[in-house]
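stuck on this one:
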Amino acid sequence: MPGHMRFFLILAIYVSGLAASSLAQGTERAAGTRKITIIGAPLRPANAAPFALPFATLYSFNGRSGVHWPRGGVAMDSAGNIYGTTLYGGSCETCGVIYRLKPPGSKKATWSYTLLHSGKLDQQGIAPTAPLTIVGDVIYGTMSAGGDPLCGCGVVFKISTNGTGYQELHRFTRKLPAQPLNGSTPIGGVLIDGNTLYGTTNSGGKYGAGVLYKLSTSGSGFEVLHHFTGDPNGGPQGELLLGKDGFIYGTQYGGGQYNQGTVFRISKTGGNFLVLHDFLGVNQPGNSTDGANPEGRLAQGSDGTIYGTTTFGGNPLGYGTAWSLQLVSGQWVYTQLRIFVSADPLDANLPHSGLVIDTNGTLYGTGAGGGQNQSGAVYKLTPPATAGGAWGYQTLYSFASLTSNGDVPYADLLLHNHLLYGTDLTGGDISFSGTCINGCGTVFEVNP
């Protein structure tokens, strides 16, 4: 099956649907303080050769082990060990695992794989989907399902980097007959500030569209800070960002004024919730092109500008966008950095992942589709030389289906010491035709 067709199968499984347009009671909306600036379709400088930069497959998941689909991306500790999760495999097909990759002692050696924990169906959390957060020798994260046997609504957990001491800090439970009041299905991971942990759920809450919550790193003091509105499963899916101004920034996949998603800001105590931008999608009057359905990680520049992506929208075919939001004279100004298209054979598209930013302001991301082989790509966006100019675009690496290097990069990238680390959902080891006939996924490194 071609890479882009397999991607749409992935999409059918994971896209949760759009949220309704009803607004939360008591929500402070940025009415009168928002401004949209769309600088046309950015100029398209010539792409570099897709295989011109160093690329390495660090690990391929073995189909015989049953562990596959590393949807959550990777994290790294101070010793250079890589940690991640898979959505499937382990104690059961849908349990998922937490793993560690230890770097080799020499360039010719391979990274060593260690399974740290497997989800279990006996009331433990299962199916991790988000990036992990590492503080010292402790890993924090979420499981999108499992936990409460009456609900299976997911958990927040911690575990040591050596694989011991797994502890569920919070189980999302069904408090009402109709829905879990305190949230359900934490697709995104956690943000840690001191001894406080912040996160979101994709569903549940008062309006069924998820919540933003906090609790201590010991598991005490769980509190819902905000209830999102919209259709069920239209809540946040991406990672939260602690801004330079002390506010928490995030995105909602659906919901908002046009049912196409939002960017929001909230204080660490839950006050001053503000919608910074409502995405228009492609169905609004005026042939809107600003994008739809943000779900990846946000990045922040040195001047406070927020950067992100939408998975869809940008043009009627809906292959996604990259954008920025900047506070200028009290107004949040939206600027479009890129419209991803399928017509350009080297252009990445369908960016489920968000953006990471280097010290020089360069942005990096992945598209689950597109690239030279239409099986996904790693790309970079370069700031304009003069204010208001077009951002430069370059495809750094194009994946190909049914190869050892993997394909369909879905998760957020990790930027460490000017190297990019990420995961592919499929590809890699394709020698086993059982669990995952198209390969079980890979962990990779790109030197940009």
In short: The chain is about 5% helix and 35% strand. The longest helix spans residues 3-14. Confidence is low (pLDDT under 50) at residues 1-52.
